[in-house]
Amino acid sequence: MGKNILYPAFIKKFFSEKNYNCFIPFSIINNNDTVFVSAGIQPLLKQARENHINNCEKIYIAQPVLRTQYLENIEEGSSVAFTNITTATFNSSEKEHFNMIKDWYELFFEIGLEKKYISTKTDMYETKWNDLSLLGKRIFHYYDGLEIGDTTFFTKIKKDNKNINIETMSDLGFGLERLRWKINKKSYYDLFSEFDNIDIKIKAYLSALALLAVNDIKPSNKNAGYRVRLLSKKIINILNGRNLNIQELKYLEECITYWNLWQVKNFNNKTLILNELTRNGNRYILDLLCNEGYKNLSGININISRDEFKKRILSSGVSQEKIKKLIK
Q1: Is residue 3 part of a domain?
Q2: Contact criterion met (CB below 8 Å) for 126 and 154
Q3: pTM of the predicted model, to two decimals?
């Protein structure tokens, strides 16, 4: 393949040369609760409603998103965190909408997708986004049977049965990782290296944690930080309480590097992620020991390093042999 679509610069250059206004990705936080941006059109629609986007202006954004509804359905080709590459216009014509679809197909052929494997399916899409009711013609786009994105031309946009400043909206969104997956013919989760020995659920959850980290979302028991806690617990449950191994640590580092490609502020917070994983691992092991009948463990602080945690449970009466069996 002549072009590496792993990097944002290539696709951004492609659309900017076609006179698209390229927006910087927004934070993934959609509000102060646990809801995140799940599609690139979400922040763009907000900008259009606030009159920050001109009529008929073609917009491009490569927006990292989180879809937490997929937490329990991880498999090759699906994930919690991914990049929704979106182009859009507001108050433009259907003819311009189809011209924008043509731009996408030109990109597809340039990056190595073959026309013979592309198929489509059309329906009428009626939905409600917060206070807006929308209706439009939607086209699903498939490559070799896999959905890679959809394009919708909305012609009815109402707010509580009242007109707003948007009469039509073109929403064209494609999953970068799915495009890369089909072109590279490797794992959907491969970034810069191959990690065949890592459970794909671990990959998916680490990627989501890394995206939260580069958006400076810290673990807590409320608001967006709740998801950091939840993802960490899911990882620890799969790992049976152990720390990340060398390969898993390297994958986490690659995820942080990858998501920083799309962000303005390059937060890292790797140490914060590892500390949260250790904290949850300590809790996991402590609960196992308590369930097995070990006493004198209730006062042990889980917010400590793994080495210190080992010392404290040893001094509480847990044998070295038991500790070696539980903590690998």
Answers
A1: no
A2: no
A3: 0.91
